Amino acid sequence: MIEAPRSPFSQLIPEDCHPKVRALFDYWRSVHPKDGGLPGRQHIDPIDIPHLLPNIWLIDVRRNPYRFRFRLVGTLIVNYAGEDNTGKWFDERLPDFDPGVFIDLVETGKPSWSRGRSKMRPEKNYYELERVRLPLATDAKIVDMILSLTVFFDSGGSEIQRP
After folding, report:
1. SS (H, E, C) the chain
2. Does residue 110 or residue 154 have the better pLDDT?
3. 4-13, 15-24, 37-46, 68-77 — which is least confidently predicted?
4. Where along the chain do its domains lie?
């Protein structure tokens, strides 16, 4: 288990969240720069979290105006989407995409967590999603990427590991 320091972000993620969500959140906290600020992509080593990779996606942040691009999409996410959106823009792939949660995370530098029905893909065969979105900043200050993890659940509340 990764030893994560206490942080002001601890209260943003529920204690009873899914273990994969907790693992990524704790890992993200453990790689924060010692002199303060947010971790960047350079602090994230996939070798440290191989069991989480199928559920992970990285999102590039562009400003003026805000746009978000799929930088990396885990295999479980690709399977559920039915396509690999790596390198594509959210607003071009998901016409109903509301960037509000992403913009709030980028401007505040605070993680976000949610659990509920999918609004963007209601036709898919999962019942609920649990997500954590974590800010990354190459310079420790300006968020330029979002590290996210999604867990899929069936109607009985059990995690779906394969579509």
Report:
1. CCCCCCCCCHHHCCCCCCHHHHHHHHHHHHCCCCCCCCCCHHHCCHHHCHHHHHHEEEEEEECCCCEEEEEEECHHHHHHHCCCCCCCEHHHHCCCCCCHHHHHHHHHCCCEEEEECCCCCCCCCCCEEEEEEEEECCCCCCCCEEEEEEEEECCCCCEECCC
2. 110
3. 4-13
4. 15-160
Residue 124 has pLDDT above 70, yes or no: no
- How far is the C-alpha of 163 from the C-alpha of 148, rounded, in Å? 19
CATH superfamily of 15-160: PAS domain (3.30.450.20)
Would you place residue 4 in the very low, low, confident or very high pLDDT band (cuts 50, 70, 90)? very low
